[in-house]
Amino acid sequence: MNAAMDSGACPGYEAKLEDYVGRRLSNGEAQRVAEHVRSCDACATALDDAVASVRLLRLVEPVGSPGPRFARIVMARIRSEREASRDPRGSWQPFISLAWRLAATASLALALMLTYDVVRHARTLQTAGTTEIRDLVTSEADRVPVNGDEVLLMVAETNRGKR
Amino acid sequence: MSDVPKTVAAQAAAIAVPLSGRSRAEEDRNLVRQAQNGNDSAFEELVRRHQQRVFALVGGILRKREDVEDVAQQVFLKAFVSLKRFDQRSAFSTWLYKISVNECWDYLRKKKVRPLVYESDLSEEQVSRLDGVISQDRPLPAPSERAEAKELVERMLERLPDQDRQLLLLKEVEGFSVEELAEILDLNVNTVKVRLFRARGRIMEHYRKRIGLDGLAGHSPGGGGKVRQI
């Protein structure tokens, strides 16, 4: 027979042999497997090993049952984890709150400074503009003659300047 | 006519098991729904219903009692945290067992410690005890000898690849069916059978090596062909 693969059994028979060991085959199927095993040394040896392994593993005991308080311990752990996740800030809370206050104060101070600066700048501009206009108006007003003498005087000054 | 009640009774008996399984699954679904709505008692009930199987599953993979306890608790914590996302398309048990397997693998990955293995071959006496255990012809050894033989088998298991050891322990020691294993491990049922069968061959190979029969083809521990009669 073409024995191959890890178990040494015929590859097409490994699953059936496992079922045979676990008594999961119908009578007819079990008969067919038994017939094959009788004619195939490789499968016969592999089946011997498998059956022996069942007896060998009967020696090993299960790990056991959870203790009677297992469920309560799990629930206690869940509750404590939940508490921790509800208040993730925990012991950092005072520092976090202080940081928030500082940040708020800094923002307010910055806003006040900006406002003050903007207002001051606007006032400077306004003052400068008023002075210029007044100067302009004043000089223009100076130039306007109010009587004949002034007209003559302006003409004389103008002529003198040309000269 | 007298056959009629018998037939009805037989039919009722035939559907009794699936129905009880179904009603258990239905109860699980209700408990999950309640737990998803914030009912802690419902989740506690789910823990009680599944703790034994989760423990067996984790035990089959990790083996050490203290590790098992710890990881089993972790499994339920994970389940609680993820419960809102569980859409109940699969059974709660299947979902929970998959979490269990993943937790075990994570744990093993983090730990990365393999127990030290006793390397020397077995003494004549130990061989005879082990042979006594696996032979159908001989009576089981006395409890003290059984304990020693058990330790030897545990050591042989430790030498197997992780997957082989886990499959053998889950199937033969913790009592999981092939179908359950296939579902938990996301494998085809046939693949599980083949892997199990090969793992059996491998542990017996270790057994032969231990008793110094390596290379002796066809050695049938405990009386050769008679073992085959199961």
Question: Overview of this structure, please?
Answer:
The complex is a heterodimer of chains A (163) and B (230). With 163 residues, chain A is mainly alpha-helical. Chain A is built from 6 helices and no strands. Chain A has helices at residues 14-21, 27-39, 41-57, 70-86, 93-143, 148-162. The longest helix of chain A has 51 residues, at 93-143. Chain A is rod-shaped, with a radius of gyration of 53 Å. Mean pLDDT of chain A is 83; it is low at 1-5. Chain B is mainly alpha-helical and 230 residues long. Chain B is built from 9 helices and no strands. The longest helix of chain B has 34 residues, at 3-36. Chain B is elongated. The interface between A and B is large, with 51 and 65 residues.
Q: How would you classify the helix and strand content of chain A by structural class?
A: mainly alpha
Strand content of chain B: under 5%
N-to-C order of helices and strands of chain A: HHHHHH
List the quaternary state of the chains: heterodimer
Q: Shape of chain B, please?
A: elongated
User: Which regions of chain A are unreliable across 5 or more consecutive residues at pLDDT < 50?
Assistant: 1-5
Mean pLDDT of chain A: 83
Structural class of chain B: mainly alpha
Mind summarizing the main beta sheet of chain B? none
- Tally of strands of chain B: 0
In terms of topology, how is this protein built?
The complex is a heterodimer of chains A (163) and B (230).
Chain A: H1 14-21, H2 27-39, H3 41-57, H4 70-86, H5 93-143, H6 148-162
Chain B: H1 3-36, H2 40-62, H3 65-82, H4 92-111, H5 124-134, H6 143-158, H7 162-173, H8 178-185, H9 189-210
Helix pairs in contact in B: 1-2, 2-3, 2-4, 2-7, 3-4, 4-8, 5-6, 7-9, 8-9
